[in-house]
Amino acid sequence: MTRRKRRRWGILPAESMDSMGAANRDAGVESPGAAASLNQDDSAPLAPEPKVFKELLVNYEPHESRLAILEAGQLVEFYIERDDEEQSAGNIYKGKVENVLPGMRAAFVNLGLEKNGFLYVDDAHAEERDHKKSRPIQDVLKVGQEIVVQIVKEAIGNKGARVTTNISLPGRYLVLTPYSETIGVSRRIDSERERERLRSIAEKIRPKGMGLIVRTVAEGASQKALIRDLAYLRRMWTRIKHKARVMRAPALLHREASLIARTIRDHLDESVDRFVIDDEQAFYRAREIAETISPALKHRIELDNGTVPLFELRGVEAELDRAVKRRVWLKCGGYLVIDETEALTVIDVNTGKNVGSTDLSDTVLATNKEAAIEIARQLRLRDISGIVIIDFIDMENEEDQAEVLKTFQRALRHDRTRVTVLGLTRLGLLEMTRKKVRESLLNQLTRVCPQCDGRGHVLSEEVIARRLRQRIVERLKESGAEAILAEANPAIASHLIGPGGTNLKELERNTGRAVFVRGAQDCEMEEIKIIKVGTREEVERLALPVHEGQRLDVLVQERHASNAKDGIARLEGYVVDIESAGDKVGEVVHVEIVRALRTFATARIVDDHEDSLIDLAPVSLDGVETYSNMLPPPCSEV
Q1: Measured between alpha carbons, how far is 201 from 407 in angstroms, rounded to an integer?
Q2: Which of 66-70, 394-398, 510-514 holds the top average pLDDT?
Q3: What are the φ and ψ backbone dihedral angles of 445, each rounded to 5 degrees?
Q4: Taking the chain, what is the end-to-end CA distance rounded to the nearest angstrom?
Q5: Burial class, 427, CB count within 10 angstroms (exposed 0-12 / middle 13-18 / buried 19+)
Q6: Whole-model pTM above 0.70?
Q7: Residue 319: which of 257, 374, 394, 264 has the closest Cα?
Q8: CA gap 175, 86 in Å, rounded
Q9: Where are the beta strands (DSSP E) in 355-441?
Q10: Mind listing the pLDDT tens digit for each residue in 158-205?
């Protein structure tokens, strides 16, 4: 169905920020989705929604941990933590001011990271209780000055991390703000009586000169529990101050908790029905942490040791595939188109295949309402942040417009990240912002496609290699064979093999089988070919097309990636490293195999070409017919 001609919607006023919202923003901790009022006098709280079955699923691997949050079986949030990618949001550093830029009213601070942190003037003088925000940056900071800062936004793209001197330390129930005397209570706690009770406790226990923010999970918690949590946070702040006195900048003073600890601290509450972990050691570690933080919920942590991978069993992998696609289909037949840029995301709503059953206005209303709920979910799942523009299908009836916006407002209540809905523009586009803390899911799971120079995305090699590794493991379990030979795109094969074959050795340790992997140019990036499963002797014979002492003619296809003096040839995807052949790319050379290993062979160029032509047999090499001396392989195993 084609879209209707645009009609201007009424413009809604933006929500005014109260003191609680400001406190949450300063602390950089959880805040409910703040939506614009649907009309000027709409101040009544929304009715509570029915309880949904909520699960936390953790997939734990040696070099990567992933958390999936499911509500009613549907993926709504996803977090990933890799060993080679340091998660810095929440970390506290003692830094040194490198540059002061009056024109930008900001400074760059050396944190000891790859890029300097960016410190805006309003975030630079938290310790000055009576500071004036209009002060020039050069009056606040000097080059070479050492300051304690916290990262509130991770380095994204070419930009360094955003830092602040407004330190906040999140605990289980409270957030301690050492340089702010604000008392705040999460607006996600609906009961006014409970909010007043918690505010009264916070005012009573608040340390002098410091502030407290009561988190959502504190609803129903006793004063004793809050005091215990505050004592933990004060000890943490004491340690940080001591390190700041004795350590020289740049230095890390406090590291944010690991994925497992953050999950228990921030997500494991009464709303969670199950917390499933697929790694035994991580499971026991989680139980220990829960015993300290939330012993009443420890029994909800479960270990999954099934044969089918947890994320695959629960459909998380399939949902992640959809989460990086540009088009999202709705159940009604309509669809969303989501286009992300660095600072702006545009979401377009279309009726698509939904032709309706009554009249056009009903069809448009139904599509827009379903789209509003799905957009709220996609914002959380994809971790979309910055400015968001939503183009709903035009509606002439103002009541329909208000109903769609109410639906959107209700769906945003589940978002833990601060959301501000500004209202509708004169063109009928819904404007909103969502706080930016880290890279979006799209940028975490994909890389810029080299073929289209950044106009599209493909799954990264790490993600593809992990999935192909799972397929290899599944095939070995199905067949019960001793060994397997697989082919993949050379870029993916290198990740499966790892530096010096480390990943391959780890895979063999985990499976107890022999695994052979080789690159093949005809394989697509996400494709894997199982060439042979069988005994180790059978697979090894097929996997190693050459043997030591063998002489053959090969085509030098490219220079060695790390040693330009050597050249590279490939025999059925098997790499042959030829010494001193880097200047012979495109030529056919006669070589002798010096050493044959599982993943590659080394060779040297030989001159006795005539002797090697005796009893030669043809060998196919990437379309070039060559000949090989078919001497029997040596008895010793490679």
Answers
A1: 35
A2: 66-70
A3: -95, -15
A4: 64
A5: exposed
A6: no
A7: 374
A8: 23
A9: 386-391, 419-424, 430-434
A10: 788 999 999 999 998 999 999 988 899 988 888 899 999 999 999 999
